[in-house]
Amino acid sequence: MKQEELTASVKKYARELGFDLVGIADASDQQFDHAPPGHKPTEYLPGAKSVIVGGIEVLDEILQTTPSSMYWKHYEQLNAWLSETADQLSRFLRRQGFKAMWFPESDDYRYYADQRASGLPRYSPCFSHIAAAIAAGLGARGTVGVLLTPQYGPRQRWISVITTAPLTPDPKFDDELCLEHIAPGSCGKCVDICKTTQRGALKPWPAEGGVDMYTCNWARLKNKGLACGLCIKVCPVGRK
Questions:
Q1: CB of 201 closer than 8 Å to CB of 145
Q2: Residue 82 within any structural domain of the chain
């Protein structure tokens, strides 16, 4: 099968599985250059050529209830769906004769705690879905480093599949979406709401590091284990 045909079949299958957003990145894209040692696609899977990134929309109607058990259940449900669907996509690629592996949509909070206990100043995920989604042309970072898309703003969950399949990468997204980047001082809603309710886990990216997951995790604990989501709740980008 030619590269273009293989790429089209993979994207078609991913959309049939239910992904709202699908993009493909080169496994050696420069977005992955900043990953910690051992965390690059080609280090996880020798011979990797492509990274497939899938996104699923966070339902805004449920998000508007956060912090709530309703949103926490939705958050968990999306994460479980992403894991199952990425596994199906990986097995589809393996049936075509390629190697493939997927990463969890987000690391377990115990992983944060272990890294903090070891003395690391900042949390480092096992794999950056944001970097992968940018490399796959799906959107652009906002003022705190969270990925924004024209379709949903920050309101989607991501998962990534690394594969040896030689797929055609998507073109980069080269527009600005964050209102603070377009007109500094015009928004800042995500930073403001986090500062007043969650100890200020959000900082300008990359100068101050973006999302401080240690502090963000404190907010989860304060909310009796419930996911927060206030920052993506108030973001106006991509709102229908």
A1: no
A2: yes
Give a yes or no: residue 239 inside a domain: no
- Identify the CA nearest to 145 among candidates 210, 194, 93, 88: 210
Domain membership flag for residue 240: no
Q: Is the pTM of this model over 0.70?
A: yes
* Number of compact structural domains in the chain: 1
Cis peptide before 206 (omega within 30 of 0): yes
Strand 140-141 relative to strand 50-57, pairing: unpaired
What tens digit of pLDDT does each residue of 69-87 get? 899 999 999 999 999 999 9
Domain hosting 31: range is 3-234
CB atoms closer than 10 angstroms to residue 104: 17
The answer to whether residue 217 sits within a structural domain is yes
What digits encode the pLDDT tens for the residues 129-180? 999 999 999 999 999 999 999 999 999 999 999 999 999 999 999 999 999 9
CB atoms within 10 A of CB 158: 24
Q: What is the DSSP letter of 60?
A: H
Q: How many CB atoms lie within 10 A of CB 221?
A: 10
CA distance 148 to 177: 7
Beta bridge partner(s), residue 21: 55
Which of 197, 233, 232 minimizes the C-alpha distance to 215? 197
